[in-house]
Structures are given as C-alpha cells and as structure tokens.
Write a structure and sequence with these properties.
Layout: H1 8-20, H2 24-37, H3 41-53, H4 57-70, H5 75-87, H6 91-104, H7 109-121, H8 125-138, H9 143-163, H10 167-209
Helix pairs in contact: 1-2, 2-3, 3-4, 4-5, 5-6, 5-7, 6-7, 7-8, 7-10, 8-10, 9-10
C-alpha cells in the first residue's frame, strides 16, 4: 500500500545519491521513508545493501528475502543474500542462493564468482577456479568494475578485522581476506588468458582462410 502524498521514487533516488557518497546513515533514513511509502523489491534491496555495507548481515538477509518474495525472479537479491550468508560462514547455504541467481540468469557473472570464492574458502580450489573462469567467460562487466567490487569487499573485511574481538573471528576474517586477494589476482590473470586465446583463434582462422 502506498501512503498518499509521498513520492517513494523520489526517496529512492535521494537515498541512492547518499549511498553513492557513502553517507550510509542518511541513506538508511531515506530508504526507510521510501519503504514506508511503498514496499517494493528495489527499496528492500537497496535498504539491505546499506545493512550489508555496515556489516548487519542478518538484518540485510531479511530484506533481501522480502525483495525475492515480492519479485521471485530478482536474481540480484539472491546473489547478495548469498553474500550475506557467506560473510556469516554459512557457505553451503550461500551456494544455494548463488545457484538460484544463476537459474534465473545463466549469465550472472557475480554469482559464479561468489560461488567460486565460497568453494575457495571451503578448500575446494579446483572447482573454485572453474567457477571463476565460467563466470568471467560469461561476463559483460569490465575488468575494472569487477576489481572495484572485490576491492570494496576486501576493505569491508579489513575494517571488520580491525574491530574483531576474539581469535576465532580474527582467523575467520583473515581467511576471507586471503580469498579476496586470491580473486583480485585471478581476475586479470584469467582475462589476459582469454584475450590471448581469442588472438590465437583469430590468427588460426586467418591462416585457414588464406
């Protein structure tokens, strides 16, 4: 139900501007107003993103879940829901969410990459690299955009590590950092390999044609 006299889309855009400026507290207030005006999947998803950025993973999960109730084909919310579960160490549950996102959109690069990261943390290195490679081969996202995404994830984990209160949590977060460093090295390596393969194939095709 929309509340009369309130333009939820204006709140949505305003909240997005604060989010881009990393003013998460102000953005949270704006998105809360958007949700009070109209409870749609995009408002839930963006509000959940704010919780995610602040490490409030359980709170974010509830909102991603609500977004998928409203729109069952919302692959992005399933992917980000999986990321929350991954941050909580619930790797098998996270994989189910990444699988669901890929079922909806078979070219969803980030879900393949996030699935690969989870496999890496589960010490299934061969399958992890295969998942990363599959996602990158399907990707329409630039290398810079992908690296920016995982650099952000790395910085968030480093912030959590600096505040960690016990050794078990510290060891968990150090493992997370190792995974993000791994994928940040692997992405350019794989993309370079693909580019070289394409060049070789073009050369071979040219030779055959002439």
């Amino acid at each position: 139900m929309s509340e009369p006299g309130i333009d939820s889309f204006s709140y949505f855009l305003k909240g997005g501007r604060y989010y881009d400026l990393k003013e998460y507290g102000q953005s949270t207030i704006i998105y809360a107003r958007a949700l009070s005006a109209q409870q749609d999947e995009k408002c839930y998803h963006n509000s959940a993103n704010l919780d995610y950025m602040q490490g409030k993973f359980r709170k974010a999960i509830k909102k991603y879940s609500l977004a998928t109730v409203i729109r069952p084909s919302f692959a992005m919310s399933y992917n980000d829901w999986g990321c929350c579960l991954s941050n909580l160490g619930k790797y098998d549950e996270a994989i189910l969410k990444f699988k669901r996102a890929i079922e909806i959109n078979t070219n969803y690069t980030l879900s393949y990459l996030n699935w690969g990261l989870v496999l890496y943390w589960k010490k299934e290195d061969i399958d992890a690299e295969e998942s990363i490679e599959k996602g990158l081969r399907k990707s329409v996202l630039s290398k810079d955009l992908l690296l920016e995404r995982y650099k952000l994830e790395l910085s968030l984990v480093e912030e959590r590590l600096a505040k960690a209160g016990n050794e078990e949590e510290k060891e968990f977060l150090k493992g997370r950092i190792d995974g993000y460093q791994w994928i940040l090295e692997l992405i350019p390596e794989k993309l370079k390999k693909f580019a070289e393969e394409d060049t070789t194939e073009e050369s071979d095709a040219s030779d055959e044609g002439w």
